[in-house]
Write a structure and sequence with these properties.
Shape: elongated
Largest sheet: 2 strands, antiparallel
Number of domains: 3
Helix content: 40-55%
Number of helices: 10
Radius of gyration: 42 Å
Number of strands: 2
């Protein structure tokens, strides 16, 4: 009783109690405070702080209260049931309207799509809501396991790159852009080693090369890549020349 509205009320209560009572002692009237009985005090306190229209206040809560994201339906329904009881609502259709309007949007849509929004009574409606929420949680759990399993079995779909660049590899762009055009010396060297004019790897010729080079995706990226014509395809005669060199 020492802060805000309660403090103001207490000060006024003291003032009234201490200024309107007199007691006569040996013929002399003196001021003597009289706070009355405990019943008088509690009655005055309740009159001062009781909600003017408690039923109206609960109706406002019923109209505006929404299920918060992450709050289980069971907890939310318990809160709504308390409001419904305080508002003295007994009709099923009215209780149903308030409860459905307060549900999380995703749960409400699933409830209507599954036909569970229709029930014979309020108890069955609550059971339908809890059952629908349980089904949603099970579906999300299954989808989560499936996604994790798919990612594990297909490393290329993970966000972490699976390849690291070999510092000793040829100067090929990280996005697999076609290498720069061979010089005559480089071409001759690859011919002697039996290398590929396309990917520069040893062991096959360009006509058998399975390497696919990507094109730049963005104009800004393309500006940094030297525009070069396609490498001249190695012919069967080049392959013969390579064999003769050995």
């Amino acid at each position: 009783m020492t802060e805000k509205t309660a403090r103001v009320w207490a000060e006024d209560f003291y003032r009234v109690a201490e200024s309107h009572t007199t007691t006569t002692v040996t013929g002399t009237s003196i001021l003597s405070p009289n706070y009355g009985t405990w019943a008088d005090f509690t009655s005055a306190f309740k009159r001062a702080f009781a909600v003017v229209d408690s039923k109206g206040a609960v109706m406002v809560k019923l109209t505006t209260w929404k299920q918060r994201h992450g709050t289980p339906a069971s907890s939310h329904i318990t809160t709504m049931n308390n409001f419904i009881t305080q508002a003295q609502i007994t009709e099923y259709e009215t209780k149903k309207a308030f409860l459905l309007a307060s549900l999380d949007q995703e749960l409400l849509v699933r409830l209507f799509n599954s036909g569970l929004a229709t029930a014979a009574n309020y108890t069955d409606l609550v059971d339908n809501i809890l059952g629908q929420e349980n089904n949603m949680n099970m579906l999300k759990a299954i989808q989560g396991r499936t996604k994790r399993s798919f990612t594990t079995q297909n490393p290329r779909y993970t966000s972490t790159p699976s390849r690291t660049r070999d510092p000793n590899a040829m100067d090929v762009d990280a996005t697999d852009i076609r290498p720069k055009r061979l010089t005559d010396a480089e071409r001759e060297d690859l011919r002697k080693k039996g290398g590929c004019f396309k990917c520069r790897e040893i062991g096959h010729i360009s006509t058998n090369c399975k390497k696919v080079f990507k094109k730049p995706l963005a104009p800004a990226r393309a500006a940094k890549v030297e525009e070069v014509p396609e490498e001249e395809e190695e012919t069967p005669m080049d392959a013969c020349a390579t064999a003769l060199d050995f």
